[in-house]
Amino acid sequence: MFPTVSHFIEYAFGVQIPLPLNTFGLLVALAFVAGYWAFTEELRRKEILGLLHPIKRTVSVGKPASTNEILFNGVFGFLIGYKLVYAFFNYRLFVSDSQGVLLSSKGNLLGGLLFAAIFAYWDYKEKSKFKLSQPKQVEVTEHPYELTGHMIVWAAVWGLLGAKIFDNLEHWDSFVKDPIGSLLSFSGLTFYGGLICGGAAVLYIAKKNGIKPLHMLDVGGPGMMLAYSVGRIGCHLSGDGDWGIVNLHPKPFGWLPDWLWAYTYPNNVAMEGIPIPDCTGRFCSVLPLPVYPTPIYEVIVCFILFLILWRIRKQIKLPGMMFGIYLMMNGLERFFVELIRVNTRYHVAGLAFTQAELISSILFICGLLLVVFSIKNKEKHANY
């Protein structure tokens, strides 16, 4: 396993380069990049088809930097400098525990003040370049695809928040024991929490900018499937605890790699299992028994589902149908992987189920209803 990028570089090239980058975080960032690409492409396509339209805004130009803007940039610069300079002078500590350093109160005061001054002055000078003796109002045209960056930021913030909330609800016992640590930890994220909260944030931004909800949902379907596939690579490579149940069955095919059938996740970031002999450092645990590597199964299946969605998107004309199909695919995929995945099970009225099984079932039903709704409202959608 590769808990950090340094572990991967050492494995691939035999060179130890200490970098404060964890593999899971890097893959999550790449997942957002993949989603950004898919969202942008679909928004462009729908605008060309005349389904989405640019909007005109009136903006003020020529104003100098306001006091609030300078203060905001100064505070932001202080936070960057406070941590960055401290990390530079304590690089080994930062590499060994970047999360601990970032979430602690440790920092360099002089570095913070220096960067605060730089950021504040930079904002002042940039605004001064375009300052007019008499500020004026101008009309600008904003295309839907130009909102993608704004949407992705909102989806990231609210998605990560939702993922943490749902994860702590799912692991309530651990949360009660250490609520602060559970909330601040970078590990432990529930996909459906991110989907629900991140999706709601994107719909809010879309509605504010004149994009109808069904069109925005259709845009998001393929992109979210692709982003999920990429993000699951990080889960597998880092060993974040999102694996399956113990698998001691013999391989069904001789050509199938062992790690694709049953894996022990050595050096996993969840630090679960037994100690690895002669291993030093933080990530020195390995599972005593091999388990189903469910994250890699989801990488493969969800990428195939993305390709299907990307292929059929031009043939689907009814608003809402694409997202309905996405919900059904997503629900089925997650429901079946839960059958071999380690997770907290709830018991209600004699039924045992996981949080993901419950939500995936609801999403499948919602997707089916959305597809039926789209078909029944075909004539109405002709002018949508």
From TrEMBL:
It holds the Pfam family LGT. This is Prolipoprotein diacylglyceryltransferase. GO terms for biological process: lipoprotein biosynthetic process. Keywords: Cell membrane, Lipoprotein, Membrane, Transferase, Transmembrane, Transmembrane helix. Belongs to the Lgt family. The lineage of its organism: Bacteria, Pseudomonadati, Bacteroidota, Sphingobacteriia, Sphingobacteriales. InterPro entries: Lgt. One of its GO terms (cellular component) is plasma membrane. It comes from Pedobacter hartonius. The chain crosses the membrane at residues 20-39, 70-89, 109-124, 186-206, 295-312, 318-337, 358-375. One of its GO terms (molecular function) is phosphatidylglycerol-prolipoprotein diacylglyceryl transferase activity.
